[in-house]
């Protein structure tokens, strides 16, 4: 069960959002993953089975036609109706043991989707939030055309900006192999808070890493992963999308947190693409913070203390807001 702060419990199934612009290799990546044993305890929500080429892997269908069980053990769910309906359906079918048990859910979005809408659904619907939690956003970026898309389309820029994990795809098509490392560095500059992996090089360890929740990665030593590196760097995309990091070394009081949330909703809600962070509160515990636009999910209490640069780090990904404007509201957290 969850307490009023939304602390993580075994009943909260982690949900990973797999996003990426048109042609970025998102569906190809998913097609590879569903063959892997590391992915066998996963339910995948996709628009239609044909996009992923599953016919040769089908073992069984549930009594409901929109669920397919693959020979790898992975479940694929064709989204019929709303996302809320699909998540609720998976939850109750698992509870009734009509489908095999799964440990996580991966939602593949369309190439033109704003990831904020899906994040809002997971955190904003009370029934969904009681049973599921956003564990991370994975964004695929095409090594050939990805940077051009990010510069030309707001959706691509937003998909990159909110990523917790970036998968650089199609590196095998680059004429110069060294260009992949240059692209990786560029993406690290544009989103300094995401861990980056090369899609072609994904092995068992890389896949497990890809689907490790953001909260769990935050509990690791800073040297164990590349997330939160260069915390002071915020890159300005076209469309004015920035990622700014603020550090709060002292515990935050609950009244101060409530004042900050209210101020963010009132002043900057429309421009807030995503907020994420790890804050130490006045009760001495550490909490994961998540928000999209006006919607702030209940803080999730972590099971142990956070050390290193992740402690007290708050990342605000916004559109057309300066650091000075954000600092005015973050000051409320400092008391």
From TrEMBL:
GO terms for cellular component: cytoplasm. It comes from the Bacteria. It catalyses: GTP + H2O = GDP + phosphate + H(+). Gene3D superfamilies: CobW-like, C-terminal domain, P-loop containing nucleotide triphosphate hydrolases. Signal peptide: none annotated. Residues 241-334 form the CobW C-terminal domain. GO terms for molecular function: hydrolase activity; nucleotide binding. Pfam families: cobW (PF02492), CobW_C (PF07683). The keyword Ligase does not apply. Keywords: Chaperone, Hydrolase, Nucleotide-binding. CDD domains: CobW-like. Belongs to the SIMIBI class G3E GTPase family. ZNG1 subfamily. PANTHER family: COBW DOMAIN-CONTAINING PROTEIN, COBW-RELATED. Zinc chaperone that directly transfers zinc cofactor to target proteins, thereby activating them. Zinc is transferred from the CXCC motif in the GTPase domain to the zinc binding site in target proteins in a process requiring GTP hydrolysis. This is GTP-binding protein. It comes from Parapusillimonas granuli.
